[in-house]
Amino acid sequence: MKLAQRLMLTMVAITVILVAPSIYGLIALRQLQQVAYNLSTRDAVGALALGRLQTAFRDLDNSQRIFLAFATQPAERAASAERVMDALASVDAELGRLREGGYQAATAQADSAWLALRQAVDREQQLVNSGDVDGADQHREAAVDPAFQRMDEALTPIGEAINYAGAVQVEEAQAIASRGSTTTLLALAAALAIALLIGTWTGRNLLRPVTELKRGMAGVAAGEFEQKLSISSHREDEIGDLARSFSLMSQDLAALDRMKAEFVSVASHELKTPLSVIRGYVSLLRDDVYGEVTPEQKRILVSVGDQTDRLGRLIQQLLDISRFEAGGVHRLEIRAFNLPAFLDELAVSFDALAIQNEITFKIVKSPDLPQTISGDSDRLNEVVGNLLSNAFKFTPRGGSISVTAGAANGDTPGVMIEISDTGVGIPPEQLPRIFEKFYQVENEVQPLSVGTGLGLAISKEITEAHGGTIGAESAVGEGTTFKVYLPMQPPSAGANE
Q1: What's the number of CA atoms in the CB half-sphere (13 Å) around residue 312?
Q2: Are 294 and 365 within one domain?
Q3: Closest C-alpha among 355, 428, 415, 420 to residue 380
Q4: What is the pLDDT of residues 157-214, one digit of tens each?
C-alpha cells in the first residue's frame, strides 16, 4: 500500500472516531450558549441597572444634603438643586429599566417608596427656596431621612430577585455542563485511546524510516558518503523508493569522492616533477648560465619563478588536504618538543617581515606556559605560520601583531595560543566560512586576495588531528584574533611515539 493511501485511511479512521463525541459536545455547547444568552441579556442587564440605581440613589442623598447646606447661598444652592434634579432623573430611568427587564414585582415596593421620597424631597426644596431653612431642617429629620431609609430597604428585594434568577440560570448551566462534560470526556477518552493506537502504529511505520533517512542525509552532508540504511529494500511505498534512491546516491557520491581524492593525489604528484624542472631552468636562466639576459628578461624570469613557487605551494596544500581526508591523523610525527623554543623560532622567522612592513610584532609567553608539549612540531609550525602570514597580509603599516601563549583554562590540560592583529578584520557574515576549503575573505577594505583558500582549512585539519580546536573573533576595521587550543597529549601520541 502506498504511503498516501496509508495516511488517508489513518485520517479517515481518526475523523470517524472523533465525530460522535464532537457532535454531542456541539449540542451541549448550544444549550450552554442559550443559558449564557439569558444571563447576559436579562439578568446581567438587571444587575447593571440595579448597580446604577444604587449609585444614583446615593448621589441623590448627597446632592440633597449639599443643597440644604447651601440654603443661604443662592449661587451654590442653584448648582446643588441642578445636581438633585439629575440624580432624580437617574433614579427614575434605572427603575424604568428594571421594570422593562421583567422585574415589575420586585420593584413594586421601590416604586411606592420612591414616590414618597420624591414628594419629601420636593417639599424640602420648596421650604429652602422660600427661605424657611429651619422648616427645611425639621422636614429633613421628620420626612426626608425616613423616606431615604424606606427607599434603601426597598432596593433589597430587587437584588434578591436578580440573584435568584441568575442562580437558577447558573444551576441549569452547571447541570448541562456536567452532563455534557462527563459524556464528552468518556467518548473522547475512548476515541483518543483508539486514535493513539492508530497514531502509534502509523508513527512507527512512517517516522522511524524518516528518522533513518535523516541520519543518512546528515552523514552525507558531513562528508561521510558511504551510508547504510536500516530500511527494508523490499518496502513498496514511497519511503522504500526514497531509501533505494538514497543508497544509490550514497554509493555514487562515495565513488566520486574516492576518484576525486585519487585524482588530486596523482595529479599533485605528477605536477611536482615538471615544476621542479621549470624552477631549475628559471634559476639557471636568471644566473646567466645560458647566456646573459636583459634586465627586462630577468624581471620576467623573477615573475615566472614566483608563480612557479606559488603553484608549488598550491600543489603541496592540495596534497595535504588529500592526505588528511584520507586519514592524515596517522601521518603526524608526534613527539615531545620545547614550546618556548618553538615560539622563539617563529619570532626569528617573522621579525624581518615585521621590520620590512613597519609592523610592531611581539611574542608573549605567559609565566604558566608549559615547557614541553607533545605534537608534530613541523605541522604546528605550519598552523601558526599560516595564521601569522595572514595577519601580516591584512595588517597595514603601523599596525601591530602579537602572539600570546599560555596554559589553557579548562578540565583538560593544554596550551592556548592566540594570534591577534590590528588589520582590516573579517565581515561577520563571512567569519563562519573562513575554514572552508578554497574560501577567501573579501570586504570593502581589502579586496579578494591572491591565494588558494586552503591555508586555514589545512590549519584546522592539523589542529583537530592533534585533538585541538581553532576559532576566530574579528571586527571589521579593528582586527582579528585566532585562538588555537592544543592538548598536552594528542589522541594519536601513544600510537606514533
Answers
A1: 15
A2: no
A3: 415
A4: 777 766 666 556 666 666 666 666 677 677 777 777 777 777 677 667 667 777 777 8
154: in domain: yes
Query: Taking the mean position of all CA atoms in its chain, how far away is CA 294?
Result: 67
Q: In sequence order, what are the residues at sequence separation of 6 or more whose Cβ sits closer than 8 angstroms to the Cβ of residue 365?
A: 340, 343, 405, 406
Q: Which of 121, 110, 180, 188 is nearest to 150 (CA)?
A: 110
Strands (E), 343-436: 360-365, 372-375, 400-407, 414-421
Longest dimension (CA), the chain: 144
Cα dist. 12→6, 7, 181 in Å? 10, 9, 25
Q: Which of 284, 303, 325 is where one domain is finished?
A: 325
**CA-CA distance, 17 to 29, in Å (whole number)?**
20
Collapsed DSSP state (helix, strand, coil) of residue 448: coil
Count of the separate structural domains present in the chain: 3
DSSP state of 423: S
Give the DSSP letter of residue 449.
P
C-alpha of 244 from chain center:
36
User: What is the rounded (10 degree) CA torsion for 32, 38, 41, 47?
Assistant: -110
Residues with Cβ within 8 Å of residue 207, at least 6 apart in sequence: none
- The pLDDT tens digits of the residues spanning 344-367 come to 998 888 998 899 999 999 999 999
489 alpha-carbon distance from chain centroid: 38
**Best CA proximity match to 369, nearest among 386, 344, 352:** 344
- Evaluate whether residue 202 is within a structural domain: no
Alpha helix positions (H), 130-237: 133-139, 145-221
Last residue of a domain, one of 197, 228, 246: 197
38 and 164 in a common domain: yes
Count of residues in the chain: 497
Query: CA 168, CA 38: separation in Å to the nearest integer?
Result: 11
Same domain, 355 and 252: no
Backbone angles phi, psi at 420, to 5 degrees: -115, 145
Identity of residue 465: A
Closest CA to 343 of 317, 361, 316, 320: 361
**CATH code of 362's domain:** 3.30.565.10
Domain identity same for 472 and 436: yes
Domain check: are 23 and 103 in the same one?
A: yes
CA distance 56 to 60: 6
Give the per-residue pLDDT at 375: 92
Q: Which residue has the higher pLDDT, 111 or 173?
A: 111
CB 465 within 8 A of CB 478: no
381's grid cell: 609550525
Q: Are residues 319 and 341 in the same domain?
A: no
Q: Are residues 343 and 491 in the same domain?
A: yes
User: What CA dihedral angle connects 226, 232, 235 and 237, to 10 degrees?
Assistant: -50
Query: 483: domain range?
Result: 333-496
The answer to which of 57-66, 401-410, 464-473 has the lowest mean pLDDT is 57-66
